[in-house]
Amino acid sequence: MIGWEHKTGRRHGFPLAMALWLLCGFLAGWGRPSLASAYGEARFQHYGPVDGLPQQQVLSLHQDRAGYLWVGTYGGLGRFNGRAFTRFSTADGLASNTILSLASTPQGTLFAGTTRGLCALPAGALRFRCARTHGLDGVSIQALLLEGTDLWLATPDGLFYLREANLETLAEARLSGTAVLSLGLGADGTLLAGTPTGLLRREADGRFSALPLPGTEPHAVSSLLPDGGGWWIGTHRGLLHHDGRAAARSLELPSAVRDVPITALAVAPGGRLWATTPLGLLRREGEDFELIRSQQGLADDACYALLLDRDGGLWVGSDGGLDRLISGPLIGYTRRQGLLNDFVRTLAEDAEGRLWLGTRSGVQIVDPPTAAGWDFRRSRVLDRDDGLVDARIYAIAFDPGGQAWLATGHGIAVFDRQLRRQRLITTAEGLPGNEVRALWLDESGRSGFVGTTLGVARIEDGRVLPVASELLAQARPMRIVRDPHGRFWFATLQHGLIRLDPDGQVLRLGRDQGLSDEILWDLAVAPDGGLWVASNGDGLFHIDPDGGIRNWTQRDGLVDNFLWQLLLDRDGVLWAYTNRGLASWDGRVFRSFGTQDGLTHLEGSATAALQSRSGERWFASASGLMRYDPSRGGRALAAPITVIESVRLNGRPLPADSELAHDAGELMFEFAAPSFEHAADLRYRYRLRGLQESWSEPGPYRPITFVSLPGGRFVFEVQAGHAEGRFGPAARFPFSVRPPLWEQPWLWALGALLLAVTVWLLLRLRLRRLEARRRELEREVRERTRALEIANRRLEEASLTDPLTGLPNRRYLSRQIEADVAATLRAYQEGGTNAHRDIALLLVDIDHFKRINDQFGHHAGDAALTQFAERLKAEIRASDYVVRWGGEEFLVVARRADAPQGVQLAQRIVEAVRRQPLHLGEGLPPWPVTCSIGVTHFPPDPGRPCLLSWEQVLEVADAAVYEAKRRGRDDWVLLEPRCSAAVDAAECRRRITLLKTDLSAALDQGHAVLRCGRELAAPTSA
Questions:
Q1: What residues have CB less than 8 Å from 986, skipping those under 6 apart?
Q2: d(Cα 597, Cα 43) in Å, to the nearest integer?
Q3: DSSP class of residue 302?
Q4: Are 633 and 597 in contact (CB under 8 A)?
Q5: HSE, side-chain direction, 13 A CA sphere, residue 793
Q6: How far apart are the C-alpha atoms of 560 and 553, rounded to whole Å?
C-alpha cells in the first residue's frame, strides 16, 4: 500500500491510500440504480452518537467471548452491552482515536489496531496498554488475526506477528516493505494476506507466495472470508471466489455494483453472503443479488464493516453510524415498497384473493402474491379520478355480486367488478351523516348496518332505513360485528358497547357493567360467541358467552392499555395492536412485538387487521403495513452470558476477593448480559451466597446495592435469561466482610466467662429493664408519629379542599393544572395521530342561585351547593376533576379531551342538572335547577400550543358563561378564540380581553367562534 509521509516521518496507510481506492470504485458505480428487492424490505435499527457511539463513521466491528459488541470509529472505541455504549479514547490509553481493526483472545483480552499502533485491554481492565516494540510503534494496523495464541498484524510496512499475543514480546516481521490490507485464516490452517496488488498465501515453510487472481490488472484485496474449503475475496474492483483448488474466478455482479470495492464480507447460516461497498450493503442468496442502500433504510451508502453476532444478527458499520438488521417475524411495507399511503385505515380481501387497502389517499387493490412474493407496485388505485368524492377510506365490504362498498368521509361509494362507480349513498338517500366509519353487510348483501358520526342506519334491499332504537340512532360506531347467536355488537365513540338482539332489544354496556366508558375502537368475535373488546386506555376486555366480563391490562403483561385493533386468527390466537406495539395472547401469556421484530411503527391503526383466506395475517400501523411470517426470526437464541461490569464501594472500584470493614458503606453491583436479539426482554436474577441461597424474582435490569452486611465470606451471583428461554451461566464476584470487634470469637468467650463469674445476674436484670423501657419508648414514638402523620395529612387535605362541598379548591387547581398543561404540551411536541390530547375547561354556574338564599336562607343554599357538586362528580370521567371556583361557580377540568368531547360533557351536565330538582331541606319544596356552562379548551391553537396560558384560556370560558346566561341560561356555550399564525401573543391577549368586554364585536371581527347547545347539532369527529 502506498502511504503518505507525516511530519514525524511515520506512514499512516489507511486514511489516504484506502480512501483513494474506495473513492475510485465509488465513482465507478456512482449513479447506478439499486437492485430490486426479491426478499422483502430490509429494515435496520440505527445507533449513532446520540445513542453513545463515540463517532458516526464506523470502521471496524468485533464481538468478544462475553458477547460485547466493540465498535471502532474515527473518534474512539465503543463497547455495547445491549443497553448502552461505554466509550474509550486516548484518555483511556489508546494510541489513537481512529480504530481500524479489532480482535480478542479466549481469555478476554481485546486488541485494537489504530492508526498509531496496537493497543490491548485485558479482561476486567479499564485502561489500554499500547505496544512500544520496534515496527509497531506509531504504524497503522489495517487488520488483526488471532491464530492459536499468536496475533497477526497487517500494516503498510508489512506483516507482523506477536507470539502469545504478548505486547512485551518483539514483533516478528514478514513481508517487509509490502503493504498488507487484509488477513484470513482457513479451517485447514491456510493463511492469506491481501495486498494492494494481489493475494499472498503462506506456504508450509512459512514463506508467502502469490495466489493467482483473474485478469491482467492487479487486485487490491480488502477483505477475506473462508468459505468451507474455499474463499470469498473482496477487492477494489468487485467480488472474487476461490474454491481452494483452482484459480479464483470473478463473480458476475449486476451492473449496479460491478467494479465497486468490497470492503467487508460475512456469511450467514444457510449460505447467504453479505458484503459492504461504498454504494451500500450487498446481499447474495443463491445466484441473486440485492443492493440495499440508504433509500431502503440503511444509515449511509458508504459501508466499511460487517459482523454476524453469535445470535445470527447482522451489524453494518458505515459513514452514517451502526446499523443492525431487523430479522423479526413481521415484514413491513411502506411507500418505498409501493404502498399508496403509509396510513392504512382498513383491510379487506375480495373473492379473487386481492388485498384491498383503505388509506387516506384512496383504495389500493393489490394482486395476489407470485412466487417472488407480494408486489405492491402491481396494484390498482381508486381515487378521486375514479369517482371517490373523499379519498379517506374507513371500511370496506363486499356483496355477493362482487361490488365493493367503500365507507368514506362523504358517504358510501359502491364500485362494480370493473371498478366503476355505480352509486354514491349519502344523506340524500337517508344516511344520518356523510362521515361513515363502520360498515357491515350480510352474506346475501341485502341487509346490513352503516355507522356514521351522526348515528346508525339500516340497509335493506339496497335502501337506507332508520333504526328503531333511539340509542343506536345517536351512536357513533367504529366497528360493527355479528356473533354466532345473531346478535349485533357496536363499538362506539361515546356510548360504550351496544348490543342489538335478534328480537330488537338493545343493551348498552359501560363501566357500571364492568366494561369501559372510554372510546371502544375494535371488536373480535370468537367461535363460541365470546367477544373481545379494544378500549381507549382501559385495556383489553372479554365478554364470555354467559355475560361475564374480564379485563387485561399492563399489570397482566399487556404491552399498553390503549388498543387500536384486534384480530382473532384461526389458530385461536388473539392479536392486539396498541399504542406501544403489537401483542399476541395464546390464552396463557402475552407476547410483545416491537420495531426489533419488524414493526414499522409502534402505534396501530384503528380496526385495520386481517387474516386472509390463505392464512396470512396483516396489521396496519400509523406508518406502514405489516405481514406476519412465523417462519422468520424464529431461531433459538444462545443463553445470555452475564458479565459483572462494575463493583463499587461508596463510588470507588472494588477488586474481587477484597475484604471489607463491617461498616464500609454502600456496595453496588452493575452488570449486563450482552445480547442484542430481544435485549429489552432480558430478565435478571441474583443472590448473595453466604446471606441468601435462593434466587431473587427475575426482573428488568437495575443495579443491586447492599449496605450493613454482617461479617463473613460472600459470593454475589447474577444471571440473565430471555423472556421465553432458560437462564445462562451466572457471573460471580467473591468478597468478604471483616466481623466487628464485638463479633470476634475470643472476645465472646472472654465476655461470657466474665459475665458468668461476676455480673451475670446484674446484667440480666439491667437488660430486662432496658428492654421494657425500650418497648415502651418505641410504642410512644409509634403512637406520636402516627398521630402527627394523621394531623399533617388532615391539614394538607383541608388546605386543598372546599369545606362545604368536599371538592378540590383553587389551591388544588393551581398545583394540579400545571402538570396537566405540561402533559398536553409534551403530547404536542411528540406529535402523533392521537387527537385526544387537549384539556377541556367547563365553567359551570348555577342559574338564579341567589333566589335560594333570598327565599330559604343560606342553609338551603349550602344544601343546594353540596348536591350540585355531587351531580357534577357523577357526570365526569375518572380522569377528570371538579373544582369549587367560588360562590355558585364550579370548574370542570377534562384531561385528554378535545373540543367535541368538552361539548359532549357540557351537554350531559346540562341535561343531568335539569332532570332532577334539588332538595333544600326538610319541609322545603323541591327546587328545579338549571345551569349555564362556558366551554373552551387548551390549547386553543394546536399549531402554537404555547401561545396562551391556561389562565388566559380560562378567561375565555368566563366570557362564554356570561354569554350562556345572556342567551337565556340552561345551556352551554363553546367559545374558541381564533389567532392566526400572523397574530402574535400580545394581539391574541388583546382579543381575549375584547371577548370579555365586547363579545359581539369580537365575533364580528372573526376573533372567535361561538357555538351553543340549542343551535348546534351533535358534533362529529375527524
A1: none
A2: 10
A3: -
A4: yes
A5: 6
A6: 7
Q: Tell me which amino acid residue 29 is.
A: G
pLDDT, residue 363, reads: 97
Listed residue (145, 184, 162) closest to 62, CA to CA: 145
The neighbour count for residue 263, using CB atoms within 10 Å, is 25
CA torsion angle for 153, 156, 157, 161 (degrees, to 10)? Answer: 0
Q: Which three cell numbers stand for residue 992?
A: 381575549
CA angle 907, 910, 916 (to 5 degrees): 135
For residue 381, pLDDT beyond 70: yes
Report d(CA 395, CA 437) in Å as an integer: 7
The per-residue b/e assignment along 854-877, b for 16 or more CB within 10 angstroms, e otherwise, is eebeeebbbbbbebbbebbeebbe
Q: What confidence score (pLDDT) does residue 831 get?
A: 72
Q: Is 1002 helix (H, G, I), strand (E, B) or coil?
A: helix
User: Alpha helix (H) ranges present in 801-941?
Assistant: 810-830, 849-856, 858-875, 899-915
φ/ψ region of 236 (left if φ > 0, alpha if ψ in -120 to 50, else beta) reads alpha
What pLDDT does 843 receive?
95
Which three cell numbers, joined as nine digits, stand for 650?
Answer: 461508596
Element (DSSP H or E) covering residue 966: helix 950-966
pLDDT attached to residue 633: 60
Q: What is the pTM of this model?
A: 0.61
Burial of residue 321, with CB atoms counted within 10 A of its CB: 0-12 exposed, 13-18 middle, 19 or more buried: buried
Q: What's the rounded Cα separation, in Å, for the pair 571 and 594?
A: 22
3-state class of 822 per DSSP? Answer: helix
Report the sign of the C-alpha dihedral through residues 164, 167, 173, 177, in that order: positive
Using alpha carbons only, what angle is made at residue 401 by residues 398 and 402, rounded to the nearest 5 degrees? 45
Spatial distance between the Cα atoms of 658 and 709, rounded to a whole number of angstroms: 14
Q: Is the pLDDT of residue 549 over 90?
A: yes
Using an 8 Å Cβ cutoff, are 588 and 546 in contact? Answer: no
Find the range with the poorest average confidence among 266-270, 619-623, 845-849. Answer: 266-270
Other Cβ atoms less than 10 A from the Cβ of 795: the count is: 9
Peptide bond into 900 cis (omega under 30): no
| Res 27: pLDDT | 44
Measuring CA to CA, which residue among 565, 622, 48 is closest to residue 332?
Answer: 622
* DSSP conformation class of 969: S
**Cα dihedral angle (382, 385, 390, 394), rounded to 10 degrees?**
0
pLDDT surpassing 90 at residue 6: no
Show the 3-state SS of 482-521.
ECCCCCEEEEECCCCEEEECCCCCEEEECHHHCCCCCCEE
pLDDT at 296: 78
Helix (H) or strand (E) holding 271: none
Starting from the edge strand earliest in sequence, which strands make up the sheet with 117-121, in order? 99-104, 110-114, 117-121, 129-130
Please give the backbone phi and psi of residue 768, each rounded to the nearest 5 degrees, phi first.
Answer: -65, -45
131 in Cβ contact with 167 (< 8 Å): yes
Distance CA 72, CA 62 (A): 9
